[in-house]
Amino acid sequence: MLATSKINLRLSITILIACAFELILQAQQADQVFYNGKILIVDSNFSVAEAVAVKSGRISAVGSIAELSSRLGPSTERFDLKGRTVIPGLIDNHMHYMRGASRWRFEARIDGVTSRAEALKLIAAKAKAVGPGNWVFVLGGWSEQQFADRPGGFTEKELDVAAPDNPVFIQKSYTRAYMNGLAAERLSRSSRISPSGRSQERTRGSSGGRSFSTREIISRATQFLPQRSGSERAEDVAFFNSVLNRYGLTAVYDVGRASDGDFTPVEELAKRNDLTVRVFHSLRYRANNSREADEAVSLINASKPYGNNDWFGLIGMGEHIYNPAHDSSMRSSIFGDEIWNEFEKLARAAAEGGWHIHEHAMQDSTASKILDIAEGLNKEHSMHELRWTIAHCDLISRENIERAKKLGLTLAVHNKTAKPVIEGRDSPPISWMQESGIVWGLGSDGAVVSTVNPFHTLWWVTSGKVFPDEVSIRTPVSREDALIAHTRSNAYLMFKEKDLGSLEIGKWADMIVLDRDYLTVPVDEIREITPVQTILGGRLVFDVEK
Ligand SMILES: [Zn+2]
């Protein structure tokens, strides 16, 4: 009797141990294993792995195929990377996302197209797709210099040939506009711009076509964009996200304006688990004068920063906490005390409320003022904790990079698609940033002044070139440093360093499989790299074969 119960007890214990072991194995079993790749983890050692395992959307193991074999279970999905290079999903630290999302569908985009003939073909194809009489827009993301076959703007005649039955409106950054005859006719009918006014402005063009320098023309033309309902806006956002996924982007920081549209459609997609890009944004308000700045202070005091989860939400303020302090790299912009006093009022409210600021500063004089204010506030509010970001930094000095570093600030650098080279200067001076050890990250500033393609940005900072073959940065950075700036450093800029920016264990499995090896292709090919797959939290959100 006693012997039997002893045997039973032993048996039960054995079964229990077996069950526990099974449970441990199951817990270890990955949902997905990606193997047979050259996976750039982008950790502090810049290590490279053959395989990664994913559990509940996050990286659960990194190593060789042999090391990860214990993670394979009956329900594990296996992805053969076929020797391809994998990098963490790219993060754009500065995009006018809602503006891009609301327009992209109605545009013929010519980002990165280096042949004029090809660009005209794309415009013709879009005209055909939308049907006669409907508008075709190209709203930025390109420059006149990018066409190797024949640089320059578009003439009315060539646009008429490309799209004889459609009004075509083409915007270069916010400085130029080109259009065909039908578009000019509709614009003159709809606005106060008289035909004679048009021909006067026409003489200002550089291309021989109708070239306008006024923002007014641009804003009038974009009024012809279709009005969208709530559900249509959600579709537009989902569509734009699919475009960004195709470029390898998995997270963005929208630092745009209130007029770009609210985030309701993004929130809706987030609720439905249909977001394929993590969308973070700044607080939306309008502050063009002292009264509006006071209203903004009330809003800041009544709002809470960092209202986000890992998919969507608010980070901080920017890119203009006070609009009149908007400078340009093309002209010196010295603002008076009346502007900086308002700026400081808003910066103080931000510091007191614990807000992060991401602030536009192209000129060194603007960076100096922001640093003066940040240094003053640092006595009571730790800038190391607030991590304010100075954005663009086109002309920042070594001295101001050092000041920013000492304060614990970060720098954000943005793509040059359309801006001309600044003679005799590395603009922005990324090698100084790199040498100083400050955290600096890359963004596009797209979709109007620049292309949103992150590989264009990576090409720019590693080759130092802008279209067509001009040197913009004499001392570029290494491919590794550029990749860190577009991934891990951006996660830090956005307070997401525990969850995003590298493929280390515990972080979200956001990664892209590339069509060629980023680390070894000739530098001019970096611009042409295209992802074949984009994975967000372990989920395939883009596959070139589908
Ligand atoms: Zn800006």
The CATH topology of the largest domain is TIM Barrel
- The CATH homologous superfamily of the largest domain is named Metal-dependent hydrolases
Number of strands: 25
- Biggest sheet: strands, sense, closure? 6 strands, mixed
The overall pLDDT average reads 92
Number of domains: 3
Give the amount of beta strand, in percent: 15-25%
Small molecules bound:
zinc ion
Q: Which structural class do you get from the secondary structure elements? A: alpha/beta
Overall geometric form: globular
State the end-to-end CA separation: 67 Å
Order of strands across the main sheet: 3-2-7-23-24-25
CATH C-level of the largest domain: Alpha Beta
Computed Rg = 26 Å
CATH architecture of the largest domain: Alpha-Beta Barrel
Characterise this structure:
The structure is a single chain. Mean pLDDT is 92; it is low at 194-212. This protein has 3 domains: 2-89, Urease, subunit C, domain 1 (Roll); 97-222, no CATH class; 230-530, Metal-dependent hydrolases (TIM Barrel, Alpha-Beta Barrel). It has 546 residues and is of the alpha/beta class. Residues 319, 360, 391-392 line the site of zinc ion. Zinc ion (ZN) is lined by residues 319, 360, 391-392.
Keywords:
546 residues; alpha/beta; Urease, subunit C, domain 1; TIM Barrel; six-stranded mixed sheet; five-stranded parallel sheet; 19 helices; 25 strands; binds zinc ion
